Amino acid sequence: MAAKIVPISVLVEEAKKVFRDEFEDEADIIVFAPGRVNLMGEHTDYNEGFVMPMALPLATVIVGKKIDGNEVFIHTTSNFSEQKTKFEIPGKNALIRAIPRDGPKWAMYVKGVIANYIGEIPPAFKAVIHSSVPIGGGLSSSASLEVATYLLLDELTGSKGTMVTDKALACQKAEHDYAGMPCGIMDQFISFMGRKDHALLIDCRQLTSTLIPFKDENIVVLITNSNVKHELTQSEYPIRRKQCYEAAMILKKVSLRDANLEDIEYLRSINTDNNILSRARHIVTENKRTTDGAQMLKQMNYKKFGELMTESHYSLKNDYSVSCSELDTLVELALEVEGVLGSKMTGGGFGGCTVTLVYAHVAEKVIENITKKYKGNPTFYICKPSQGASIL
């Protein structure tokens, strides 16, 4: 059975109650930012390519209030477990926003956003963070926390003029600097800019985006969280980036965004290291799948879009080598069920989630088939494209 998705309004009320209990006060700022699932375009973002995610109804809510002094007090619930932390923030006249990189891991994302916030240094505040985005599932819990934090700081400072693209870049830099993850821009972009009933085609070079209509009562997106996360993700991610950059250098390209299938044949002809060749082949073919997929969604050709999703999975498995046995099994079990249009791993890989395009009346059959045959304890979410970050 699919997990029940907690409505944003319920998350807000739960967070407000925790705030009252913890701080004996009422929060006067409420923001939320969603997680995301990527429909197409895996590992293309840091290659200046194309990605096509959608925002999820799973979200991070922050309720907070400005306070006097120079300390931040945060209470977390839900996914982050019951934790409390406090830390000092730089004064308004500080030349450098130096915030110690210590404390719980989730706090690094908050600190990183404060340090990279555009505009005046935010004031001290107290807040409760409450999230329904699974941690480590490839649904971008980190970006949803970063983006929600940025909106909280906007309200604390009264800032209104910063471009959304610049906010997303600031959140990305926060993850680079404070969490040590050299992520692309997709996660922060979709969390800010997602829209209900739309996917978002993002050009990661130009930092532009196009809303792609994705509304059909007969079609749903089934997310299956394997609840497995192999430790390879952190170490292998930088290796993939390096291999892609090496391929681009050999081809004398700014990035693999500029490469095509003829370039792949050239790499093959000069006996390029097989890992570099296969990484480049994935990026080139994945970019084309993503732009083709956007056209298929516009035409409501879900059958072809599903085929492209499945092709993407096998490219990620065989050429990019970021899948794992659990994800491969989940894809295969989904594809066994008639009415499934396509299925693939989503996110960084080595565990996390798969995303399946399926007729709505078949979704529970897919869940039943996986539950019966999969040796694990997966979690299922039936979703539609949802709204991006907002100040409530």
Mean pLDDT: 94
- The whole-angstrom Rg is 21 Å
Order of secondary-structure elements: HEEEEHEHHHEEEHHHHHEEHEE
Low-confidence stretches: none
Which CATH top level class of the domain at 8-212 fits?
Alpha Beta
Secondary structure category: alpha+beta
Q: What fold name stands as the CATH topology of the domain at 8-212?
A: Ribosomal Protein S5, domain 2
What does the largest sheet look like? 8 strands, mixed
What percentage of the residues does DSSP assign to strands (E)? 15-25%
Report, as a whole number of angstroms, the end-to-end distance: 31 Å
What percent of residues adopt helix (DSSP H or I)? 40-55%
Number of helices: 11
Provide the descriptors you would attach to this structure in a database record.
392 residues, globular, Ribosomal Protein S5, domain 2, four-stranded antiparallel β-sheet
Walk me through this protein's architecture.
α7 packs antiparallel against α8. It is built from eleven helices and twelve strands. The chain has helices at 8-23, 105-116, 141-157, 164-179, 186-193, 232-250, 261-269, 274-298, 302-318, 325-335, 363-373, and strands at residues 29-40, 50-66, 71-76, 83-88, 125-131, 198-203, 208-213, 219-229, 340-346, 351-359, 379-383, 390-391. It is α+β, with helices and mostly antiparallel strands and 392 residues long. The protein has a domain at 8-212: Ribosomal Protein S5, domain 2 (2-Layer Sandwich), CATH 3.30.230.10.
